Amino acid sequence: RISSVLNPHPPNLMFPIIILALWGILMTSSICLRQTDLKALIAYSSVSHMGLVIAAIIVQTPWGLTGAMTLMIAHGLTSSALFALANTNYERTHTRTLLLVRGLQLVFPLMSTWWLLINLTNMAMPPTINLLGELFIISTLFNWSTPTIIITGIGTLITATYSLYMFLMTQRGSISTQFRLLPPTHTREHLTLTLHLLPLGLLIMKPALISGLFT
């Protein structure tokens, strides 16, 4: 909101904020790998993605602003879907600890499909709009300073790692005996997740709808 007021950014303001944003990407992504609480893992994932957005906005190029706008909307839908999935687990198991809620694929196979699709979306897999936003931002930062490709590349790799970690910890393995009698999932839950994923898939056909005035 205030980026237009600070345009053009003075260099002594740009460098510290971009460095902190890029460092934050690595730190918060690494924290995700150590999380045992499902909700905290999803929350730190959002912080990591917003580090990319902050860096892109501060650079103040058309590609950066387009990527920031796209990724904010894309991750808003993705993160909301992840929180919805975490809530469906919590309503049935009454715990968010990853070690206790393993093996849910055996009980909720359709919900496991949603977990896989949304985790792939969080990793910015095609054909979702997340990929477009991240490509715009990584290209912008690379043009601004070549070494940033190392940090953004490592951040992307860690994002893929903790997304797979989240999926495997919640869906694979042997289920605890205390969770063998769980209530089934509801149509409203599947509808909610469909309404999250459908825009992410369809917006790639016309990304100008959400990329602002900078395309």
UniProtKB/TrEMBL annotation:
Family from the record: Belongs to the complex I subunit 4 family.
Protein name (database record): NADH-ubiquinone oxidoreductase chain 4
Localisation: Mitochondrion membrane
Naturally occurring in which organism (per UniProt): Podarcis lilfordi
Reaction catalyzed: a ubiquinone + NADH + 5 H(+)(in) = a ubiquinol + NAD(+) + 4 H(+)(out)
Record-annotated membrane-spanning stretches: 13-33, 40-59, 65-86, 98-117, 149-170, 191-214
Keywords in alphabetical order: Electron transport, Membrane, Mitochondrion, NAD, Respiratory chain, Translocase, Transmembrane, Transmembrane helix, Transport, Ubiquinone
Enzyme type, top EC level: translocase
Pfam family, one: Proton_antipo_M
Biological process (GO), any one: ATP synthesis coupled electron transport
Lineage: Eukaryota, Metazoa, Chordata, Craniata, Vertebrata
Primary role: Core subunit of the mitochondrial membrane respiratory chain NADH dehydrogenase (Complex I) that is believed to belong to the minimal assembly required for catalysis. Complex I functions in the transfer of electrons from NADH to the respiratory chain. The immediate electron acceptor for the enzyme is believed to be ubiquinone.
Molecular functions per Gene Ontology: NADH dehydrogenase (ubiquinone) activity; NADH dehydrogenase activity; ubiquinone binding
One cellular-component annotation, GO: mitochondrial membrane
NADH:quinone oxidoreductase/Mrp antiporter transmembrane domain location: 8-159
Entry keyword Membrane: yes
Source taxon at top rank: Eukaryota
EC number: 7.1.1.2
InterPro entries according to UniProt: NADH_UbQ_OxRdtase, ND/Mrp_TM
